[in-house]
């Protein structure tokens, strides 16, 4: 450690303690405070996944909703959760800071899970059981309204806190200090492991409680565990390091766009040195020729400055070249961003229609009945196994062969997209087999004579795809973003998840309207035994092939136009170090 590091008061000036005073290295930050923050994310993952993977069965079996409607409710709920990450990130950057954002939105999630526990407990908030003749009365507007309030409070809480947890964990370490940088690597290695453990617990223990004991008890456990986690989080208040807000990157992006539009009739000078630039040399980003229209935001006019001497220019009228280049760097990410959305649409099927498939299949092992939602355990195991094989086998072999420590982030995303496409093709073939059994055995029977383990290949393929996609996206969006917009870039990554879920809802609605009939049949029938879910999966596989081709074009284009890196620490780090 450097001499400065031992003195204590050697942190960056923008790092303060809970009183707003310069933070003392020896009294704040490090592994222990970061671990207190980690608990929030572990419990959030436990609750969110434990609720979402089994929600579709509750909507169908208890609330008596059609299969397509149930799937859309789940995907809309999850899509909203990830979209609200942008709101949480904006509030954290511009107003509240990460600590207060985590605290506020965690409490909102606690309220949401509490309301959900009450909703599933009170008979008045769900329709009566189906009659002996199979007549089922769907939930009324009031009952669904209370359920929506609970779900979207959880979505709001999840979106708000998820956007800040990993960043606040990063704040507890000083990347410039060798010892703390090593601790940060260890922290993020454990971070992904523990959230995966939380996911695993959610899709096994919690789902089992929901199906075989009591949903209200399971959701009550979520409420209590989140309450304990936030109390542990508060206990570290005096030990945390807090970074001063630098303003919202979203506002900065809009300032550049507004200034460029305002000066759209002006010509960019041939001498780039005439453009406005006041950024200090170490932080300056050199000018590039892409997106030349945005350069107009840096053209100097007299009216850009106020009447007072040495007054700073209005940022909505004049921006520095560095600020313009930061926006260009973000714009370069958009083609890759757009072509990774389809993966999360495929992912959405694993927690909606695949769970519905499982609920119709033989799930008994000995005397134990596997909950349909717990089939997603194979999804989680696939992620852990894939990451283990990649870290222990593929990376060392790749380093010996190519001299590089693993695949590039673009290669990882390409592998993930290919695997998910194979996953959807496999799902289509398995569903053809399931439907043939349903046709011969009788479509109306509750449990078809076909093993639920036929679904394992599709869970494993899409799960392995997520291992590559998630890590690849996180690394790509962080390492290729400007230093001051890494939180914004992480939020951009999370919107691919959100839009993937929303696109799933849109696609389900379109297919339902195009192929559906008045009696509830079609590709996505009210009862999937009467539908053609295999054709829907095949459609997703075809879309996956088309999207993969577009991704390859965008990836090649991006490689030939790679943005300039300005932070030396970025070039040598991994995604876990910087998320």
UniProtKB/TrEMBL annotation:
<feature type="transmembrane region" description="Helical">
    <location>
        <begin position="186"/>
        <end position="210"/>
    </location>
</feature>
<keyword id="KW-0812">Transmembrane</keyword>
<feature type="transmembrane region" description="Helical">
    <location>
        <begin position="77"/>
        <end position="96"/>
    </location>
</feature>
<feature type="transmembrane region" description="Helical">
    <location>
        <begin position="333"/>
        <end position="356"/>
    </location>
</feature>
<keyword id="KW-0472">Membrane</keyword>
<feature type="transmembrane region" description="Helical">
    <location>
        <begin position="491"/>
        <end position="515"/>
    </location>
</feature>
<feature type="transmembrane region" description="Helical">
    <location>
        <begin position="368"/>
        <end position="390"/>
    </location>
</feature>
<dbReference type="GO" id="GO:0016020">
    <property type="term" value="C:membrane"/>
</dbReference>
<keyword id="KW-1133">Transmembrane helix</keyword>
<dbReference type="InterPro" id="IPR018456">
    <property type="entry name" value="PTR2_symporter_CS"/>
</dbReference>
<feature type="transmembrane region" description="Helical">
    <location>
        <begin position="216"/>
        <end position="236"/>
    </location>
</feature>
<dbReference type="Pfam" id="PF00854">
    <property type="entry name" value="PTR2"/>
</dbReference>
<protein>
    <submittedName>
        <fullName>OLC1v1037094C2</fullName>
    </submittedName>
</protein>
<feature type="transmembrane region" description="Helical">
    <location>
        <begin position="103"/>
        <end position="122"/>
    </location>
</feature>
<dbReference type="GO" id="GO:0006857">
    <property type="term" value="P:oligopeptide transport"/>
</dbReference>
<comment type="similarity">
    <text>Belongs to the major facilitator superfamily. Proton-dependent oligopeptide transporter (POT/PTR) (TC 2.A.17) family.</text>
</comment>
<feature type="transmembrane region" description="Helical">
    <location>
        <begin position="535"/>
        <end position="558"/>
    </location>
</feature>
<feature type="transmembrane region" description="Helical">
    <location>
        <begin position="142"/>
        <end position="165"/>
    </location>
</feature>
<dbReference type="InterPro" id="IPR000109">
    <property type="entry name" value="POT_fam"/>
</dbReference>
<comment type="similarity">
    <text>Belongs to the major facilitator superfamily. Phosphate:H(+) symporter (TC 2.A.1.9) family.</text>
</comment>
<feature type="transmembrane region" description="Helical">
    <location>
        <begin position="410"/>
        <end position="430"/>
    </location>
</feature>
<dbReference type="GO" id="GO:0022857">
    <property type="term" value="F:transmembrane transporter activity"/>
</dbReference>
<feature type="transmembrane region" description="Helical">
    <location>
        <begin position="450"/>
        <end position="470"/>
    </location>
</feature>
<dbReference type="InterPro" id="IPR036259">
    <property type="entry name" value="MFS_trans_sf"/>
</dbReference>
